[in-house]
Each structure stands twice: as structure tokens, then as C-alpha cells.
């Protein structure tokens, strides 16, 4: 394939060398003539393991050339990859000016092109940038139509400096955000020789994926630093703790607890987190990340409350209110906290939870229910059917075995707010259905 690569920094330099090794014809484009001249001379504009050899081989084999001429680079190629910088503005906002400027130049050339041209965004951009800024800009300047005359794909870059070439040839995943199948197919073919899985998603989800990944990586580093600092204060080998921690591939290093839903609760997480933060504080240690977890968790309850208040209803049914499905444990249930806020605001509530109903009569939690939350116990009804009758809004707190049939009985005026973790089940959602997060 003939590919023009815009931006000869860390990402662009690795791409020109690596795609040339795959047999493609590459034009490396930059506004910095010094970098372009280096590439044209077979030298790498960046210092990175194995890159020098890839670029010098590519130039020797006639697979790589350099240019400062954006127009000609687009005219001579079928695919343009955008790898220019997206630095922070002083406000923290992303500076898109380099990306938009390159896209403007590409659009000026597309205007005069008779063949289909595909633009691949590899720079990190905030969700919706492609759909709301880049595509309209290209359409406006080129007077050409997205999906008909040109394509656009978001293909986030996951390489790490220091092991960038190795990461290119063995990426964790290849993510291609595309609206049109043909655009996806072109980009997927560029990576078909690599061992990683190729995932197709929407443009905006691909943009978001990069941020979710980087935020998580930063979170992991800060988390292990705070755990390490607590270990140090207590004379514990932090390296050993984290090594053992990482051996748990079921709950720790796993998809567990990574599904967006509602606040956590129960008899362990809230109290143990509080105790850990306190243990750090008594040794004069600040652990702002660990401390912020409870604050953020409280915020989830307030967000749910606000979302419910926005609906302008009076009668609410809560289906499932133990801290998670399949249990009768109500201790520190965030759904109970939400129910108490709703009672305080004067809503008419009906509650049903199969497991709590049993516990109310016979279980170990009977005393807890009778003594600690009698005001909640009084609002319980005997079946899910009774709960949905007359409720203008139904909150799905956790799973219930009759959920699908209950959902089928709702009419289109009834709101449903789902607090359960995403991807739980694939029931056909009622008309006014909404998830708390996502
Ligand atoms: N560096 C990394 O490890 C890494 C990893 C993943 C993603 N990313 C993302 O990839 C993008 C590029 O990062 P980088 O580190 O390679 O940037 P960089 O700053 O090293 O390089 C950017 C290059 O773009 C060039 N440029 C600027 N305007 C241009 C224009 N109008 N036309 C042509 N070239 C132009 C600059 O001269 C520079 O050489 C960023 O969005 C970054 O967030 C970087």
C-alpha cells in the first residue's frame, strides 16, 4: 500500500520504519525539514531501539522517502496516517491545532483527488473529535463526502517509548474505530500479519479506549506507589506484596470489578478502605488516591439521586437493594443509602428484593432489618409484579430472576434506571431505559 505518515516524532518514526518492513511504500511528512532530511538520509529522527535499522533498510530498499510537501504526499498515496503531537494547553485541554492543521492540508489535496483516500488518526484525541471536528473540517475544505470520497478511521497508538518497535510488532491489541466496513478492512489488512487481536469499534469508542487505557495505567502506578508507601511505614516488603497481589488473576489482575455500574458497598470494601486510609494517616502518610475512592463512591450515589430527581416522578419501585445480587446483605448497601435519600425527599417508594424478603422472615439478617432499617423494611412489597404496578420509575438495584418478564410488563411511560454492572444480561430494554453509567 502507498502510505503517507504525517508527523515524524516517536509515533511517526516507528510507523514509517515498521510499515516499510511490511513491504509498504511510505512517505514520511513533517514540517520540520531537519527530521525529513534525516529520514531521507536513512537516519532515525528519534532515539529508539531497532528503529535506525528499520529506517535505513527502508530507505535503501526504496520503501521510505521523506517530504515536507503535504499536498504531493497525499496525491501519491492511498492512506494518510496522522501522528502529530496533541500536547496539553495550560488549562489541561488538549491542543488539537496540529491535528487540525494536518487534516486541513490533507483535505486540500483530497479536493483534487479522483480516488478514495483513507485518513487514519493515530494521534490521541478526545472522544468525538473525529466525528465532530475532523470529518466536518475535511468535508468542508475538500467538498468531498465522508464514506463516499474519503474514509476516516481512529486507530489509537499503544506503543511505549523504549520498546516502541517491539510494541509495534507485538501490540496488546489493535483497535480500529470505523464507521464503514471498507475503511476498517483497509486498516485491518495493514496489521493482519501481527499476532494481536484486531478489534473493530466505533470512532468515539476507539478514541475513548486510549484515554481509558492511559488513565488506568496512571491509576495502577499511583495505586502501587501508595500501597508501597504504606508498606514502608509498616516495615513490609512492598515488592513482595505487589508480586503476590498480581498472582491473583481472578479478582486482582482480571476483568473483575471493571464493569461500569453503581457504587460499591457491602460489609468489606467500605470499612477496609476506611481502615487502610486511617492506618496510613496514623503514620503521617497522605494517600490521596485511596482517600478519593470513597469520595468518588459517594458521588455515584448523589449522581443516581440527581438522575432520579430529574425525571419528575413521585412513585418509585426499587427492584433489588441488597449490596449485590444473590445475597441478603444490606450492610453499607449503596442502594439502601439511595433509598434513604429518596425517602428524605418525600418520594413514594415500594421495594422488592427476593433474598431480603426471605431474610426478613428467617435469615441471619432478620435482626439487622428489624432494628436498623425498619423504615425500609416497611416499604417492602411481596412481589416484583406488585412493585411495578403504579411505579412511575423502576430502579434496578441488582439482579432478579424474573427481571426479563418484569421488564416485558412495563409500559412505555415507566422509566427504568439500571444500577447493575454493565453487560450483565442482554434483555430487551424497555422504552425509557437508562443505565446509571454508560
Ligand atoms: N510518544 C508516545 O509514546 C506515544 C504513544 C502513544 C500515542 N502517542 C500520541 O501520538 C501523537 C504523537 O506523539 P509523538 O510523541 O510522536 O509526538 P512528537 O511531538 O514526538 O512528534 C510530533 C511530530 O509532528 C510534527 N508536526 C507538527 N505539525 C505538523 C504538521 N502540520 N505536519 C506534519 N508534521 C507536523 C512535529 O514536527 C513532530 O515531529 C500524540 O497525540 C501522542 O499523544 C504518543
Task: Provide an overview of this structure.
The protein is α/β, with parallel strands linked by helices. It has 2 domains: 2-202, NAD(P)-binding Rossmann-like Domain (Rossmann fold), CATH 3.40.50.720; 297-435, Rossmann fold (3-Layer(aba) Sandwich), CATH 3.40.50. Helices cover 46% and strands 13% of the residues. The protein has 18 helices and 13 strands. It has helices at 10-21, 33-40, 51-60, 70-75, 97-110, 129-142, 164-169, 181-191, 203-233, 238-247, 269-282, 288-310, 334-344, 354-361, 366-372, 374-377, 384-388, 403-408, and strands spanning 2-6, 25-29, 64-67, 79-82, 117-121, 150-154, 174-178, 198-201, 315-319, 348-352, 393-396, 415-418, 432-435. Strands 3-2-1-4-5-6-7-8 form an 8-stranded mixed sheet, with helices on both faces. A 5-stranded parallel sheet has the order 10-9-11-12-13. The longest helix is centred in the middle third of the chain and has 31 residues, at 203-233. The protein is elongated. The model has no long low-confidence stretch (mean pLDDT 94). The site of nicotinamide-adenine-dinucleotide has 24 residues, from helix 1 and helix 5.
